[in-house]
Amino acid sequence: MTDCLFCKIAAHEIPAEIVFENDRVLAFKDINPKAPVHLLIVPKKHYATLNDIPDDEMEIIAEIHRVVKHLAREFGVADRGYRTLVNTNAEGGQVIFHVHYHLIGGRQLRA
Ligand code: AMP
Ligand code: ZN
């Protein structure tokens, strides 16, 4: 999608602190971190929200979780604990309309 920030980051048209990349998934540091570790993991293919991923393309979610698991270990929060979350649409607090997983950790998180 031409006018999407995260598509532009995935295409390397806008800089980001990239921490993982393969053919399908990109991970980078959140520009406004809520905790010592705050990463965003995105599919390279544009889906506006989780609702927009067709059932037969949901394998991308498993792929993203594989990357989450790997990055949690790499960033030293796997055993201490961390939070993975996806905001969807207005009441879910979604601001960027390209599916992204937050990986947040490195401090005690509250409910
Ligand atoms: P959400 O509310 O789930 O849509 O979260 C969007 C997230 O994207 C926020 O945590 C922002 O800090 C983050 N963000 C916005 N612009 C950038 C950017 N250029 N690079 C990295 N993270 C960004
Ligand atoms: Zn996009």
Characterization of the model:
This protein is α+β, with helices and mostly antiparallel strands and 111 residues long. It has a single domain, classed as HIT-like (HIT family, subunit A), CATH 3.30.428.10. 23% of the residues lie in helices and 23% in strands. It is built from three helices and five strands. It has helices at residues 5-10, 59-74, 89-92; strands at 18-21, 25-29, 37-43, 82-85, 101-105. The chain has a five-stranded antiparallel beta sheet with strand order 1-2-3-5-4, covered by helices on one side. A hairpin with a 7-residue loop joins β2 (25-29) and β3. It is globular. Adenosine monophosphate is lined by residues 5, 16, 28, 30-32, 40, 87, 93-96.
Strand-helix topology:
Elements: H1 5-10, E1 18-21, E2 25-29, E3 37-43, H2 59-74, E4 82-85, H3 89-92, E5 101-105
Antiparallel strand pairs: 1-2, 2-3, 3-5, 4-5
Distance between the termini: 34 Å
Radius of gyration: 13 Å
**N-to-C order of helices and strands:** HEEEHEHE
CATH T-level topology: HIT family, subunit A
Can you give keywords for this protein?
alpha+beta; 23% helix; 3 helices; 23% strand; 5 strands; binds adenosine monophosphate; binds zinc ion; 111 residues; HIT family, subunit A; 5-stranded antiparallel beta sheet; globular
Would you summarize the structure shown here?
The protein has helices at 5-10, 59-74, 89-92; strands at 18-21, 25-29, 37-43, 82-85, 101-105.
